[in-house]
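Note to self: the last two entries modelled the partners one at a time, which told us nothing about the interface. This time every component goes in together.
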Amino acid sequence: MSAGSNIKPQDVEGLIELFKASNWDEMHVQVGEFELFLSNDPKAVGPGKAVAVAAPAAPLAVSVAAPAGAPAAASASTAHAPVTAAIPDGLVAIRAPNLGTFYRAPKPGAPPYVEVGQTISEDTEVCLIEVMKLFAPVAAGLRGVVREVLVKDGQMVEFDAPLILVEPAK
Amino acid sequence: MSISRVLSVNRGEIAARVVKAAQALGIEAVQAVSQADRESMAAQLADRTVVIGPAPSRLSYLDPKLLVHTALATGCDALHPGYGFLSERAALASLCAEHGITFIGPRPETIAALGDKLEAKALARAAGVPLVPGTDRIADAAAAQAAAETLGYPVLMKASAGGGGRGMFIARSAADLAAGFDKASNEAREAFGDGTMYMERYVENARHVEVQVFGDGKGHVLHFGERDCSIQRRYQKVFEESPCAAMPQALREELHRAALSLVASVKYQNAGTVEFLYDVNRQEIYFIEVNARIQVEHPVSEQVTGFDLIQLQFRVAGGEPLHYTQDQIPVRGHAIECRLNAEDPYQDFRPSPGRITRWQPPRGAGVRVDSHCYDGYLVPPFYDSMIGKLIVTAATRAECVERLQAALARTEIDGLTTNLPLLRHIAQQPDFIDNQLNTRWLETTGLPAFGAKQE
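The predicted structure of the combined assembly is written out below.
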């Protein structure tokens, strides 16, 4: 089977699923006449005459899961509800890069990395995620104002869990 | 049972199998998954599922610290590694031990010793287990010819410092040795800076046989029969069966004794497999290696012995004594397993991940399917391509083969390309039906015939 002519809707759906499950920045598939371009960058322009389907309308560092307005093609059989469901309009979540223990401050008793109301930029360190005594700082990944810290100090968080809500800079 | 909650850190069918086995014993199962496996069968079955990292294995299933952190953070007192990934990494077993988590497998030092091929061979030799006959260094072609007279042709000349086939050749006669020796030695000198050569007997007609063993960690060891895994492609097993019907009883007993002698000598703990090469023409067996974990093909041993080996892993790890004697583990009937893979046998076995639109495995008496797949499941592209194992059991090998053929005919999988056509083809081959097989059969006979049929 070497055909490009019989691309079925579920093939496209499958490709979108694959892309969402990956940590790729973009994906470009061309089979005969069929061409599909997916990107996590909302400003991305597909190569050639391809139609750009910008997947999540948020920067990659913030989310791999699709926000409320996910592409229509990837609905139906995707049973999994994205963790993003509860993120209020206009806010963006900084998410856990892996499972670990969440810490707001560099060490016990020290002031937290960030407070609610604080203005942050992409490389502002906002918290620590600890795995077996290995403490990895998490960078904000976007500019804006901290609106809410969702996780308690010392709590276990899973991969991709929302940690801190930020109102992005205009 | 001293284990109350286990972290299952593998994926695919074995994770689902581990979760079910734990729950059957009243143990709570927490499943660690990558982001790509959130919807997996194991995640659905587990009492709790935690997403530990993104899809790539090295950021999830291959990170020992992340796994042990997850076990501690979720209150688990044990960890089951499955097969593949970190199952034979001594570092994971040690890290578990350091943090008071029961690693369901051998002790770290056993994993380390048996994982080193030279050390494993030394242990086997010390335990009186036969190895492939061979020589020390051979100085020149004349010395090689003299050695070959003793070993018997054909022989395999190998570079002492070597690997990757360089400096290696098969000699079927004294003339072959005279013609090839200097060239191979020079090739070895160029590749490795050392032209030293040695010789091993070349096994022309070999089967891969292996013994399923279990130990209590204190020197009591048992076997659960042997498996014949001779149908392989690029050292990947495709069909496995138990018992090895081609082996005479006297040699089978010698095989079991050899395996037990080796694992008893290291006071082996939990499940393991001792692999051998079976030289069919000479009716001899040679030790290859020990796999210090549960293996993919363990179900055929379960089918002919009636034991649930995963549950036994939990029991032994939980401190229950291995209170059986060898004669309480008789082998009855015959079982064959074949591996269903999401790969295209017509396109050089290219992996073919995607969404399964229809998953209809066979059912019926003597048919078992170990799989994590279901209608609508998306096979992710990041991992191994195995999507399930079909295991059939019957009173005799002949009946088992018939049952396998019928079961494969009833298997229906849509939505992605699988190796099902190849499995059906193999099951119909006269050599398979008559059990005239060796480790090169699939590549030299089975696959060419499959390709020819396609035209």
